[in-house]
Amino acid sequence: MANPRLLLCDTDSLIQLLLTAQHNQNLAPLRVLRDSYGIQPTIVEEVETELMWTRRYGSRFVPLLKKATGSGVIERLDVTVLGRHVGQAIVKSVHSGFQSLGQQYSKHADPGEAYTFAAAVTLGVPALSNDKTAVDALDYNGMALPSPVLRAFDILVFSYQVGALAEKECDRVRKELIQLREHVPRAFQNASFADGLAQFCPRILDGGMKAVGIAPTPGPAYAAQILCTRK
Amino acid sequence: MLDTILKATGLDAHACAGLLGINPVVFDEWAAGQRTIPESYLLLLSDVLGVDPAVIRSSSKRTHRSEEYTPAIWYKLRGENLVDADRESVLLIRQLGRYQNEIEEVTGKKAIGWKLLFETIRQANDAQAPPSEQGRRAARALRESTSLSHCATGIGEVFRGNLRRLGVLVIESPIPRSRIEGCSFYVGAHPMERPCVFANTYESTWFRRNVVLMHEIGHAIFDAPSSGASLDFIDSDETNELAEQRAQAFAQEALLPREVLHHIAQSHGIKWASLTSDDMAVLVAETQVEQRTVARAAVDGGFVPAEREEASRNFEISDRLRQLTERALSTAEYLETLGPDGEQRLMLGMRTATIPSRPIRLPVPYVRGVVSALQEKKISRGKAAELLMIDKHDLDSRFGEQLQAIAED
Fold it and tell me: Does this complex have an ipTM over 0.90?
């Protein structure tokens, strides 16, 4: 199965990656996805707006976000970018379908979540979101969900598996997120990165390398595991 | 176009960005047309400003004159008596109106009873009748159709709930630097609009606010649909205006009809001919209406001669009133009477929005509705935070215990 072309990223999960940029070698997890696997981390305009100012962190992420979008590590989804993926012939109808889906989703989820999920569903690519309640609310209300919905820790574990981040760096990220009272998956809340990994089922792995974490069990499509191939 | 629209509304771009929780630099770029306004924010701006999304996104300033798109409410809000705090509070209230529509939509509890009631009252109104008579008739219609007429006592404790069940947005929040005492206007885009009545709680009593809110309902029925907004100022005496006379008569009749005043006086053995300050305290406590309105109603009802109205208004009743009703207590005193879980029941400290640069206190039923929608998986944590105008961390710290059962991954 081919690697997904895009990964639509929501605000909360990106905040975690931006907060720990000093430990994750300046967004190495996102860079490796793009450079080695051809998976372009992408944000909708709503997420960009949310990242530009948050109540808790103010405009702290603006410089790093600008750097990431400037270098292409993160791409903003607009009509031009969309056209590259779906073709110019249908770009307008796809864009308007995505906006309309986003509007529907936004009845149940905040703008960042809603438009991120809507874009991922429209393009048939995975999403990156930490908020399980958004998945639950959309699912409960009969909305289609991206498959899979990755969490920030899936990206961290993936980076560890492919050697982009050392275990020590991943554990620093974990510790810092806990210190900042950011959400951390249960497996890692009271365990080191290595110990937590033994209880964690990652949703994205390199299929050509030795697997880490626990093996997937049957579950909803949003929790499916994808196996990627290095370019 | 956004910058032109903001100028027409009298709102400052940076203040607007702060109220909506948007980076001011980004907002400036939207206003200047240098950055596309994302769809969801465009719809939000359209609702809070009352301007069509296509006009906001339009790049041509020449094709539209400000009179063509500026909603009437913003014309009213540019008046001399108004300060930035007033305009900003109205923007926030309009945002809350949008969110109220959203939560009702996802919970399937759309309340539109006000439409039929207000329309029925307007249709039955005799525009040739004296304004105070128009107000009284409308108030009787309101009491009858909302079963408030069954109450032989004051309705101060119950009428907010009745109005909210009809779909009226009732907001009480402090605006310290404002001269606005109350206002009414419509929020939400047509055909989803709903009436909103607002009372400034800053240095005001609950008894006074009952009158203010009902006065604003009178305006919402008769005046706000055509004038965009009705504004009432602290210590203003504009009772000569037709609309003010009508709204005041409406408030008095809705809260304190003659038969209720008569019943309360009789059941407490009050002798009108020898009315004392203690009697007045009882009347205020039982009617749940401020002293001034009680005194006026006593004169209008023929219980007290007009020449004694001022004396009745000036009775010193504060000490006695505090013994009679906890509504006359200060906030701290009132909380003590509620016991250890009082603060939680009133959701104190859990209702003030923190995202906007200007705080606004959200109504208890609205906050409860949002939290229960989250518990029932109808909305996400992010959506709940958006609707409560706080961030997810505030949501967790305020409602963490109630949200523990929510799935975590």
Answer: yes
